[in-house]
Design a protein that fits this description.
Layout: H1 2-15, E1 24-28, E2 31-35, E3 40-47, E4 52-58, E5 67-75, E6 81-91
Parallel strand pairs: 2-6
Antiparallel strand pairs: 1-2, 3-4, 5-6
Length: about 90
Amino acid sequence: MKKLFAVILLTATILCAGCGGDKKLADNGKTTVIDLPEGEKLVNFAGDHNYKYIVRRKRRTDEKPEDYMIDRINSDGWGGYEQTDEYFIVREH
């Protein structure tokens, strides 16, 4: 049992090593700006009403920093989608 707990704790530590306060969120009304740490490249972005998920990696030497604008889309649950005027800006440095 102790070994299983140690494995679970080690796995959680490794998975959360990149989590935490290294990204900055600034909410300006309907626009949320997310600044990635220096040298990071955006791979994917997902979210819901409560959480935002960012997949990132180290930027290669031949890649330049970019800014991404992500529109928020609302779904009515019946297959209809409506684009809102709320969006996220993800900035690479």
